[in-house]
Amino acid sequence: MEFFLLFCPIPDAVTVMSILKDAWQNTPRNWVGADPCGGKWEGISCYNSRVTSITLAAVGLTGELSGDISSLSELEVLDLSYNTGLSGTLPASIVNLKKLKNLKLVGCSFYGPIPELIGSLQLLESLDLNSNRFTGPIPHSIGNLSKLFLLDLSNNMLDGAIPVSSGTTSGLDMLVNANHFHLGGNQLSGTIPKELFRSNMTLIHVLLHDNNLTGSIPSTLGLVQTLEAVRFEGNSLTGPVPPNLNNLTTVKTLILSNNKFTGPVPNLTGMAYLSYLDLSNNIFDASDFPSSFSNLRALTTLMMENTGLEGPIPPTLFDLPSLQTLILRNNQLNGTLDIARSSSSQREAIDMRNNLISSYSETPEQRNNVDVILVGNPVCERTEATEHYCTVHQAISSFLLPCTSDQISSPNSKFSYPYTGVLFFRPPFLESRNATYYQRPVEESLMRSFKNSSLPVDSVYVNCPTNDSLGNLESNVSVFPSGQNHFNTTTISKIGFVLNRQTIENPDIFGPSQFKGAAYPYFDGNPTESNKLSIIGSIIGAAAGGASFLLILLLAGVYAYRQKKSRERATYLDLKNSDRVPQLKGARCFSFDEITKSTNNFSEANHIGSGGYGMVYRGMLRTGQLIAIKRCRQGSVQGGLEFNAEIEVLSRVHHKNVVNLVGFCFERGEQMLIYEFVRNGSLRDSLSGLSGIWLDWRRRLKVALDAARGLAYLHELVNPRIIHRDVKSANILLDECLNAKVGDFGLSKPMDNSELILASTQVKGTMGYIDPEYQETLLLTEKSDVYGFGVVLLELVSGRKPLERGKYLVAEVSRSLDRKKDLYSLHELLDPSIGLDTKPKGLDKIVDLAMKCVQEKGSDRPTMGEVVKEIENILHLAGLNPNAEAESTSASFEEASQDEFPPSLKEEELSLS
Predict the structure, then answer these.
(1) Which residues of the chain have pLDDT under 70?
(2) Would you say 107 and 128 are in contact if contact means Cβ atoms under 8 Å apart?
(3) Cα separation of 314 and 362, whole Å?
């Protein structure tokens, strides 16, 4: 019996890998046979027939991680990142992998607590559990990992205090060899312990942003001389900023925004390498602009929005050689803004909205090289103030067509399968700067990182940038291989590591970034069975059997391209000549030459927006009518019949409160929709102060009524009736008389008159406005629009966005009403610019109507027709005539209402040659 116990066999690699294979779906296609080492299974590395590495990032695995993996006693690397189908809890037996050095589970769906004994993995160098759903506290035992280089627990749901050592327990303060503390995006609470930081630490990144931390920044942070990036934004930290942060001479990025810091603005003169500084939205003592900032010679970005700054801006600030972005809005800065001495060779952006600047000075060259916004300053209040710095040019709302990045050839024209995903990073945002501004610097920086890591990457393509709810920029990323047409699992793992640790080197953009990878089905140079049809269709089966794979695809691509062009030409002829041409009412077919001339050959000056569908341009017809042209990019062009059908639907829409379709263009492979140009931007622009147009309470009521009438028209009078499906303040546009018009029908659905509910296969819309019943049941009704309109009403009352910092406006108002009952005590939720001291008439009824519109069940919500009647009644109570017509021009409107509304800013006239 003793002999048996001594030689009782441990499960070998064959047995364990067989168990794992049975527990997972979508394993690599070459996982055949019984021996993972002899069979050279994809993603498996061995030594002496023992599995030493499992690297299966982004292969599309689903299932759970079996506890049997603990029997792989020689395992050093376990990387299952970017497999969103992997879920379940992290098995406690994982702590038996005593030789494990790298544990990477980024972007999966694991949940539950992190095993308390994770600290027994004494050889662990990288613990990367980013972007899962782990809950509970951070285990104290992590402090025992003396070799740990990277600790990344960000973007989970971890709570409790940050653990530090005391007595017999260990803590994070013992990780003196760690370079990275990434703990942001959780629910950590309590104070930042002073014991967390020591002078012998080698930390480079301390990222504690977007938690629930309170108390002050411990002065011990100033002892860590190796720091390069510090992010504490999005907490509830208080007290003064410790003066010894000035000792952190190697810090390049310091973000302390959106806290409750008090005391003086910190003196950071000693931070000689500081490039990115954001102190916005704190409660610093009112003071003059710190002259010490003029000594920060490496500074490229300074953000101090809403920080109590007073007095003039010292001209010496513009002596800084690298300064590119200056955001100082919502302060009390005054005097002259003189940037004439600026020596920066980069394009600059200065946003000083809502200050007390009385004059502005710049050189003629700077007019073309510096974006300055002074809306809301005395310098723009003079009637003759029509300067470029007194307006904010913002793209009009646009179609939300799908943004694709499924190309299978690199920008260098080499056929290859890219690795794709979404990259999140935090640049200094200015609304005047198009998101595509950041595209090239990101691509260049990523390529430098890949080359420094000796990765076989040919090129990087970044597209479709949008803003997320936490203030990050998210962009689709495609990484193309070099030397062959696909990546292997090891390279995919390394690419993901670089993307998740990326510090964007361009000084106008901040890292580290966060990356969420997609499944990569091409590890052997061929798509998986589930992807074949979507990529090459039936081309391979029809091709000559003896030709090489690459030649087949190249020939197929040429054939498909010619067929596509042939179909487009045929469809164009159909549109021009056939009996199937829609009977359009008022919408006309424009030639490509007409649109080219109206936009001055699609000049950059007339480019006013972009999105996944393509570009938006402003133009002027020969009649003098201003138009907005939505030009779909070549890759997203619909078939002619679908385009024809969409035009037919839109051509039936004719209402003063709905943006009018002027016409279309379908020529030379182009697909364009032409709308009337709505001068004063969106309701969202006005509520945020972006457009410089102020809406008082009565004007907000009139905007609400206009928008409600437009939606009621779509629901009840159009044939076929239309569900808008993307009702939001950004899709409610204001004309020159501030009449509201519902726009953007990119997601609209016609309603069958006999059946109001349409089954949908995918939820469409914008986060914060999406009907929860539609989201749950996938059944779309006109009540989904009613829900979105209710959110818009809450925006009109509060001035807030529907989703900020992960908090939904509907839920916040609902909780506050349940708690306080009295509407007029909810000052923190009401927009002070509507004059709360006078208790605007009908405010309580508008809030009540909004809450009816956002009821959980659609059957409990009113129809848009009922909403119109209720708002009309509220307008009567406010002393307004709901049927009064607006004045014919913006000038007459202002003249008639100048005691009620401030002068609106003039739209800059088009200059077309």
Answers:
(1) 1-12, 342-347, 368, 383-386, 393-415, 426-438, 464-472, 501-513, 524-587, 610-613, 633-646, 648-649, 746-748, 751-763, 805-806, 818-828, 835-839, 884-913
(2) no
(3) 15
Query: To which residue do tokens 């986060």 refer?
Result: 767
SS (H, E, C) 345-386: CCCEEEECCCCEEEEEECCHHHHHHEEEECCCCHHHCCCCCC
Are 175 and 140 in contact by the 8 Å Cβ rule? The answer is: no
Closest to 874 measured CA to CA, from 797, 798, 816:
797
- The structural domains of the chain, with segments of one domain joined by +, span 215-391, 419-529, 547-677, 683-896
pLDDT at residue 820, rounded to an integer: 54
Cα 714 to Cα 696: distance, rounded to the nearest angstrom: 27
Tokens 């007595």 appear where? 167
d(CA 85, CA 527): 19
**What CATH topology corresponds to 215-391?**
3.80.10
Q: Is the preceding peptide bond at 902 cis, omega within 30 degrees of 0?
A: no
Please identify which residue in the block is written with the tokens 């969103």: 84
Region label for 738, one of left (φ > 0), alpha (ψ between -120 and 50) or beta (otherwise)? left
Bridge partner residues of 340 (DSSP): none
Please report where in the chains the tokens 């327990």 appear, as a residue. Answer: 169
The alpha carbon of residue 76 and the mean position of all alpha carbons in its chain are separated, in whole angstroms, by 36
Mind telling me the catalytic residues? Answer: 726
- Residue 794's nearest CA partner among 853, 835, 856 is 853
Residues 6+ apart with CB under 8 A from 100: 75, 76, 77, 78, 94, 121, 123, 124
Tokens of 732: 């409610």
Bridge-based pairing of strands 473-481 and 457-467 is antiparallel
Q: Which CATH number fits domain 419-529: 2.60.40, 3.20.14, 3.30.70, 2.60.120?
A: 3.30.70
CB 94 within 8 A of CB 70: yes
pLDDT tens digits, one per residue of 635-693? 444 445 445 655 766 777 888 999 888 888 888 778 888 888 888 888 988 888 777 77
CB 241 within 8 A of CB 216: no
Residue 424 phi/psi, 5-degree rounding, is: -110, 130
Classified by CATH at the fold level, domain 547-677 comes out as: Phosphorylase Kinase; domain 1 (3.30.200)
CA angle, residues 274, 278, 280, in degrees to nearest 5: 155
Q: What phi and psi, each to the nearest 5 degrees, are found at residue 103?
A: -120, 110
Contact 271, 295 (CB under 8 A): no
